[in-house]
Amino acid sequence: MDQAFDEPMRDHITRTHRTEDIPNDLYPALKGVSTVFHCASPPPSSNNKELFYRVNYIGTKNVIETCKAAGVQKLILTSSASVIFEGVNIKNGTEDLPYAVRPIDYYTETKILQEREVLGANDPEGNFLTMAIRPHGIFGPRDPQLVPILIEAARKGKMKFMIGNGENLVDFTFVENVVHGHILAAEHLSRDAAGSGKAFHITNDEPIPFWTFLSRILTGLNYEAPKYHIPYWGAYCLALLLALVVMVMRPVIQLQPTFTPMRVALAGTFHYYSCERAKRLLGYRPLVSMDDAIERTVRSFRYLRRVD
Known about the structure:
Blueprint: H1 7-16, H2 26-30, E1 35-38, H3 49-70, E2 74-78, E3 90-93, H4 106-120, E4 129-134, E5 138-139, H5 146-155, E6 161-163, E7 169-170, E8 173-174, H6 175-188, E9 199-201, E10 208-209, H7 210-220, E11 228-230, H8 232-249, H9 261-268, E12 271-273, H10 276-282, H11 290-300
Parallel strand pairs: 1-2, 2-4, 3-12, 4-9, 5-8, 6-11
Antiparallel strand pairs: 7-10
Helix pairs in contact: 3-4, 7-11, 8-9
């Protein structure tokens, strides 16, 4: 996967951010700790290719090396179910599906690199055990990404249309269920555990139509739900055309379109994942149902409610 990055950026990062040159501020925090949860990552919306690579890949290599030096025994990574998603339908996808050959964006590409590093570092004989948790569509109270961005788009009149027929099922995961999955991973990770060195999908285990989920958030905050349909392939081709225009114009002007092929694919395809491995090996069951999760999330954002 490294090969997809352009060589000038790789050379720059290698010269200026070699692992051995990074001041090891982590060591004092990790010394004497038995279990580390690695959750750090830039937000996907930042669209900063070099930052993704430095944090998700180079930074993770630094975390692994420091964990080993500090005597940490368990490392649990917050990965993403999107590492196997290529913009086409996935229905009840398992962890046995291969990593995406054509990831949907640079963020996901570096998450693949990151997960490979963490799972590859699993060493039962050396008393260093690793596991990756793959949530999808994390949301919940005080979420700084999904709900605020959705409401901002609604305020600008950009949530009138839905892509496709509105029937595509997607996994969303309440934050407390994500935390529960991490805790179970730490409890079950041991030298003789079958899950050592493996990835686990952790979702609400209740696939929901993508546009139904967004509509419930919007109407819960007194905004109108999308009601007009745009054919999926029409929207995708339009997004590809816009991406081509942006690429041609890049030497003259920097444009940052929000209507991209990746976002069209996320909004218009099926992508939901099986939690059977987590249920079988970790004893995972969602603690908070989708109905309760949406209600609690909407309640926490009442300050964003539209006032007529």
